[in-house]
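Support case: user asked for a sample of complex input and structure output to validate their parser. Sending the pair below.
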Amino acid sequence: MRVMEAQREQTRARYPDSEGYVERDGVRVFWERYGEGEQTILLLPTWSVLHSRIWKMQIPYLARHYRVVLFDGRGNGRSDRPAQPEAYAESEYAADALAVMDATQTSRAVIVGFSLGAHRGLLLTANHPERVEGAVFIGPHYPGGGQPVPERAVHSWEEELDTEEGWAKHNHHYWLRDYEGYLEFFMSRLFSEPHSTKPIEDGIGWGLETTPETLALTYLAPLMEPEEARELAGRVRCPVLVIHGENDGHSSVTRGIALAEDTGGRLALLEGSFHAPHIRDPVKVNLLIRDFVESVA
Amino acid sequence: MSILEARREQTRARNPDDEGYVERDGVRVFWERYGDGPTTLLLFPTSPISQSRLWKAQIPFLARHYRVLTFDPRGNGRSDRPTDAAAYGSWEFVEDGRAVLEAGGAERAILVGLCDGGGWALMLASRHPETALGVVAIAPYVPYLTAGHPNYTLYPFDEPLDTDEGWAKWNIHYWRRDFRGFLEFFFSQQLPEPHSTKQIEDCVEWGLGTDPETLALADEEAPLPWSSKEEARAVCERVSCPVLVLHGELDQCQPRERATAVAAFTGGTLVTLEGAGHLPQARHPVKVNLLIRDFVRSLERRTSWSS
């Protein structure tokens, strides 16, 4: 009984006004829409270790003013978990986003991407400018510029390592040995601000809704190369806002600075913030998003 | 530099509109006023293990609607630290509250208190009924009314012990050895809710605003205001204003029977907070704030009918 209780989804501050699935090549992707309004905000999925609840602090606020559409990235949440790595290519996530926009009768939207969501966001913004009014990138993982976080560049993901310390846990073999241990490490590095026990616990719970095998497929999918990222960023014409925590230990703040430069966007650096300021400083980030949406109206 | 930074007071959601000291028998007590309006709320402190910031999650909300008075208990915050136990008798805190009410420009108020402060609010309403429009007593401590929480009598307070485990930390020798260690243990017990690291850190910081000797004077050596259950009950029964009692079901400081007895003997209402510990105002502020506001509203309606 206690296990059942713990597994049941938490209550939400706000529930969706409509929901559904889109299907592409046999893969079903689950979407939700909250609120009404002239403008639509599309909250993109990030790496499939997380699902759409990563936006839980944005939805109830933004949906008071705008139409908010979001979906679970393939590989987690209520979306399918295809068994082929190609199904997790960035272009697939971008195509899912367009399919969700079509299904919700959304001709144009302000898109918001977090971390890896920058890849999907850049593909949409550069290749479908008629659908994107503006783009917000939070803690973007932008391969086109800046530097990797030094301690993340030490260990191999594929090879068996002789250590499990720190980022050595970000390793295929360790995932298969102790997935929960990996999630505990990963989420504590995602939410490194003091007093983050609740978001860490949430993140571990969302991570446990997928499997290390599924996550491995996302790693075997083709990666976005630096030149491709720069080329996409150079073609972005809509307004861009980059929000980056100065202490980000996942994706270096230099990545966000480079993305703002390459897209001609505005940059908001958040003092004392780490990788996910929208969860840990939601009021600040929500107001930044609102002001941005108002400015592109 | 970083030590200085850490010790500087945190920014506040709202700063006081007025502040000052009252002095009684040479002891200065620091008070603050937030907001204005015809209805005044006096938020009592609790034992000098804490100070007036314990109401930080109430002040900005309540001050939007009401005149809110707070004060630091003698022994902590910006109030004096007298060195004789008699200065920490319960009636002294009660009379400090009455003096703050006067200094803050209010003749009567809704009296709000937590733990010791809940008892002091009831005592003020009992001794000076003209000052009290109502009382909100959160996890109130009323000595002798019922048995105390067993935690406090598991080990002797004054004797050196051969263990530091658990409630053996409620011991003056341990306090002198590791006051922070005691505070960390104590507030972890009082904040059993998940994800309470911030509230625990705050409470430890405020606890470090006093010292073991002062706290021992106040919590263990000061004379109790009476010495029998009958007297305790009589004090409660003399409270003639409406009373709201809040109690967290996981409270490790004040037993549920005590809250129940306070509600019964004052003719008040008891609200039990599921999943809450001893400090619901810190950990469940929205719930507690709305309960206080609704209680105040019910009194305002009552006042407008009778006038």
